[in-house]
Amino acid sequence: MSEADNDSRSKSQGRGFWGRLKSGLGKTRTQLTQGMGNLILGEKEIDEASLDELETALLMADVGMDTTREIMTQLTARVRRRELNDTRALYEALATLLEEVLIPFARPFEIPDDVRPFVIFFVGVNGVGKTTTIGKLARQFKAAGLSVVLAAGDTFRAAAVEQLTSWGEREDIPVIAQGQGADSASVVYDAVQSARSRGIDVVLADTAGRLQAKTNLMEELKKVQRVIGRLQEGAPHEVLLVLDAGVGQNALSQVREFDAAVGVTGLVLTKLDGTAKAGVIFAIVRSLKDSGRCIPVYYIGVGEGADDLRPFEPGDFVAALLPDTENGADSGQ
Ligand SMILES: Nc1nc2c(ncn2[C@@H]2O[C@H](COP(=O)(O)OP(=O)(O)OP(=O)(O)O)[C@@H](O)[C@H]2O)c(=O)[nH]1
Ligand SMILES: [Mg+2]
Predict the structure, then answer these.
(1) pLDDT at residue 214 greater than cutoff 70
(2) Which of 27, 123, 132, 220 should be mutated for ligand 1, with most atoms under 8 A from CB?
(3) Mean pLDDT score of the chain, rounded to an integer?
(4) 324: which DSSP letter?
């Protein structure tokens, strides 16, 4: 599937995705703008103070100690070697380094033509945006010409089933549900079975989001996974962990725990618009790198609208995150 590129790269479309990305990352950008005052006010000589200021700004945005330190070490070395002579050059080098950190973790989400139905699990603690992400993606997949069925695998709360059902009704997409308290594995099994018999392309399976500390959730997820794997070889084909960017460094432990239990194949980072610490994405990929796991970030969410969930593009992301240099200060909108 390559529905991605139509508008996401086009920065000239003010209200297109670029505009939404930029306004979505506004809180973090505003904070960076305040923290990087010296750096972005035109071409000035680089002094110790502007380097310190930059380091603090990165830490404040939750970029994390290790990545911040590495970036600062590289920038400082280049300043010493006189490769970076003014604050403008420093700023540009920073943007490049940040983008380079993210690039290995960006990959377009693909649904191969020869796997049907293609089964995607959405996992994550409660409230992170699993159900909303499923609704948004279902709509995008449908618009890209794929047939979709939703599985209401979060059976712990009646409201969860209703929420998914209403997304399905709105988008005219079938939802397989059994109501509150039903066996989650059985619901997802039904959905995959139904997709097989009706020749449906994609199954998006919602799951419950109780706290990852409760081991029974992980056992439940593993069971659903086993049952589906027996019904269809290779399924689930993707296990997407949804993370709320606003939880900061807690996201790191969520990645570890879900990955250990169910083998996460991709990440969706939501609510980047609700936090001034969107830099957490750097800490997440850093922690993945350190543990030798290259789990891609497929999508990012920068708002509640269906179009606010888009493929993750490091270049656009960094450009939208960093303060504007032209005016010296950015309003954050
Ligand atoms: N601002 C903003 N809100 C979002 C985003 N993604 C999801 N939300 C909101 O977050 C809230 C929780 O989303 P849900 O999709 O219900 O989360 P969930 O993971 O399914 O939660 P549980 O079913 O309780 O486990 C909803 O109000 C969503 O509209 C985003 O990218 N930005
Ligand atoms: Mg939900």
Answers:
(1) no
(2) 132
(3) 90
(4) P
pLDDT at res. 25: 96
CB 156 within 8 A of CB 214: no
Residue 1 has pLDDT above 50, yes or no: no
Alpha helices in 61-129 (DSSP H): 65-80, 87-102
DSSP for 171-215, written as a single string: HT--EE---TT--HHHHHHHHHHHHHHHT-SEEEE------TTSH
Tokens of 46: 């680089």
What residues have a C-beta under 5 A from ligand 2, the ion? 130-131, 160
- Kindly list the protein residues whose Cβ atom lies closer than 6 A to any atom of ligand 1: 124, 126-132, 154, 160, 209, 242, 270-271, 273-274, 301-304, 308
Please give the distance, rounded to the nearest whole angstrom, from the Cα atom of residue 129 to the centre of ligand 2: 7
pTM of the entire structure? 0.92
At residue 16, what is the residue type? G
